[in-house]
Design a protein that fits this description.
By secondary structure, this protein is of the alpha+beta class. The chain has a 9-stranded antiparallel beta sheet with strand order 14-13-10-11-12-15-23-21-20. The chain has an 8-stranded antiparallel beta barrel with strand order 25-26-27-28-29-30-31-32, surrounded by 4 helices. Strands 3-2-1-4-5 form a 5-stranded parallel beta sheet. It contains 17 helices and 40 strands. The radius of gyration is 27 Å and the shape is globular. Strand 4, helix 4 and strand 5 form a beta-alpha-beta unit.
């Protein structure tokens, strides 16, 4: 077995590889850029080598710098993780020339299947059903428009070397095809050092289901069943699960066997993923093969019990697989939510800054399942603008899908993140969405269910009443604390009443509290009530309660007259007032937000790539005004209504903060 391996990556996947290597008794070497000098993967590794400035094209994807780090440390093998150099055949070839083992497939397999154009041609030659498209290289935007018209809109514009949603756009007309081609080309060049683009038909209403394959150097090929990856935004996976709630045993077997046959045809070894789109009749079509470990590999590990990273290392060391296909059963159900540094209330735009609070749920067994969190950050660390916005992967396992979802709900409510915008409220809302719970999902789920973006979840009546009862009980605890303040004037004892009015989500509940040493019974005017127990004390940011014996976890903040409560994707202002205070509060005018309609504000920290208009131009609704780059993604800002550009305050190359004014309108 190898004595020392180098991880040519960063963040959570570098940490993940280090964990398996340490379990196997293998020493590890981390590489890091200036931006990652204090990163978690650097601290976890046995050795660390500095490889350059923050931009990936000056550090993590510079093959010569990685090779020099290998020589300095004497690493015998390299695990590439995902992204960066993981599917770069030149890197694999350079390692082979150096006599260093690549923990991944051989370079010919990477060339054949890692390149999406080549893999499509090979799949067709092998008789695999593929999506219609143009497999040749596309010279410029004009040719992209011509090809798009030949295929028929909508089309998918994709980077040949792409992955993780980078270099990928959907176009519904000529304008979007032209803009999408240029943006995809730029993103591909910046992220992968390869700007080749291809175009295929975009199949509407599909499911994205992928098969995990594993192969050794002795001719053994197995599939570890499927992952459902249909919950996507901007072609980037957000929530994954294994197995799929849609597949039957026959379809699963057919997809698995076809995936293995495809891998066998190119002499594939190591872990790889064959991606399919599946229609409503369970017809499946080859999409692409990722010749690397997938981001969502933990859900497969949870339902099979196989450590994929360990198996990759053992395969690279020449060992045969320790199991056969019939040994790989599906055990239970697993969910994964990706925690992204992006603000769901600002159309999911990237968010950077310091993690002033980062408290994931406790990992390990729970009452009915397992919680796992793969991460590469820590409290006090900084989220950089230079890399992918994913900072953690929260996973749960349970015997059934419904139980795995419930485990995820509680884990998400327990996960504390402050200091940056993040998507925990959004994935929390999805976990409660009736359509998701039913399993009736497609890749269009987010666009269909959140067409106007995400502004927070609207909670159902039963959950609102549970939260109202919980906060009424919590308020009583806080009132008791306040009544015990020392140094009061005589005859100024604070009396705590039993009658309160709880207001949240535009709803008012009149309640009566009957407290005892074990908790409180909260009764609602008009009937009904809840029994609340908890050990919460004022000042704690997380309240773990039981309402009628069922768990309820609330993130708690203080506001005048009540609490800021975050739970199940909702961000609520909860006021708990005496009846007289509630009567007076109804008379208070509502404060309106400032009018910013005459300004184009920068929605995130980023770099101005392009200004599309000039001062004095008349603009139309939906017209592209400017392009911002952050976290390797280009974002086009569009006009919300007709107008005239009065003043432009920024130029290409300018770095802006959130809410800085880019341009003003008359």
């Amino acid at each position: 077995m190898f004595k020392k391996i180098l991880i040519a990556n960063r963040g959570e996947i570098a940490c993940r590889v280090i964990k398996s290597a340490k379990k196997m008794g293998i020493k590890t070497v981390a590489v890091y850029s200036d931006a990652d000098a204090n990163a978690l993967h650097v601290k976890m590794a046995d050795e660390a080598v500095h490889i350059g400035p923050p931009p990936a094209n000056q550090s993590y994807i510079v093959i010569d710098k990685i090779m020099e780090a290998i020589r300095q440390t004497g690493a015998e093998a390299v695990h590439p993780g995902y992204g960066f150099l993981s599917e770069n055949m030149n890197f694999a070839a350079a390692l082979e020339a150096e006599g260093v083992v690549f923990i991944g497939p051989p370079s010919p397999a990477i060339e054949a299947m890692g390149d999406k154009i080549t893999s499509k041609k090979l799949a067709m030659e092998a008789g695999v059903s593929t999506v219609p498209g143009y497999m040749g290289l596309i010279a410029d935007a004009d040719e992209a428009v011509t090809i798009s018209n030949q295929i028929g809109y909508p089309v998918m514009i994709k980077a040949s070397a792409g992955g993780g949603g980078k270099g990928m756009r959907i176009a519904w007309n000529d304008t979007e095809a032209r803009e999408g081609f240029e943006s995809s080309k730029n993103e591909a060049a910046n992220s992968f050092g390869d700007d080749r683009i291809f175009i295929e038909k975009f199949v509407t209403q599909p499911r994205h289901i992928e098969i995990q394959v594993l192969a050794d150097q002795h001719g053994n090929y197995v599939y570890l069943h499927e992952r459902e990856c249909s919950i996507q935004r901007r072609n980037q996976k957000v929530i994954e699960e294994a197995p799929s709630p849609f597949l039957d045993a026959a379809t699963r077997k057919a997809m698995g066997e076809q995936a293995c046959a495809l891998a066998r045809a190119v002499g594939y070894t190591s872990a790889g993923t064959v991606e399919f789109i599946v229609d409503g009749d369970r017809n499946f079509y080859f999409l692409e093969m990722n010749t690397r470990l997938q981001v969502e590999h933990p859900v497969t590990e949870l339902i099979t019990g196989v450590d994929l990273v360990e198996q990759m290392i053992r395969v690279a060391n020449g060992e045969p697989l320790p199991f056969r296909q019939e040994d790989l059963k599906i055990n239970g159900w697993a969910m994964e939510c990706r925690l992204y540094a992006e603000d769901p209330y600002r159309n999911f735009l990237p968010s950077i800054g310091r993690l002033t609070r980062y408290r994931p749920p406790v990992e390990g067994p729970t009452a009915q399942g397992i919680v796992r969190n793969d991460t590469g950050v820590f409290e006090g660390g900084e989220i950089s603008m230079y890399y992918d916005p994913m900072i953690a992967k929260l996973c749960t396992w349970a015997p059934t899908r419904a139980q795995a979802i419930e485990e995820m709900r509680i884990a998400l409510d327990t996960f504390e993140v402050e200091g940056i915008g993040h998507n925990l409220p959004f994935v929390g809302a999805v976990m409660d969405h009736p359509r998701f719970v039913s399993g009736d999902i497609t890749t269009a789920f987010i666009d269909e269910e959140y067409p106007d973006g995400f502004q927070g979840a609207t909670l159902a009546e039963d959950l609102l009443r549970r939260i109202a009862a919980a906060t009424a009980a919590m308020n009583r605890v806080a009132e008791i604390r306040r009544s015990r303040i020392s140094g009061r004037l005589g005859n100024h004892e604070r009396l705590i009443g039993d009658d309160w009015v709880v207001t949240l989500q535009g709803t008012e509940y009149k309640v009566k509290i009957a407290a005892d040493p074990d908790g409180a019974t909260v009764s609602f005017a008009g009937g009904g009530g809840h029994r609340v127990t908890s050990d919460w004390t004022p000042g704690q940011a997380l309240a773990r309660l039981k309402v009628d014996g069922d768990p309820l976890v609330l993130k708690v903040g203080k506001i005048p007259g009540g609490f800021r409560i975050r739970s199940r994707g909702a961000d609520l202002k909860v006021h708990v007032r005496s009846p007289r205070q509630a009567e007076l509060a109804r008379l208070m005018p509502e404060k309106l937000p400032p009018d910013t309609s005459r300004f184009l504000l920068c929605p995130m920290p980023g770099l101005i790539v392009k200004i599309n208009v000039a001062e004095g131009d008349e603009i139309q609704e939906g017209q592209a005004l400017a392009t911002i780059e952050a976290m390797k993604m280009e974002n086009t800002l569009r006009a919300e209504k007709k107008g005239v550009v009065k003043k432009i305050n920024a130029t290409p190359g300018t770095s802006l903060r959130v809410d800085e004014v880019i341009m003003e309108f008359e």
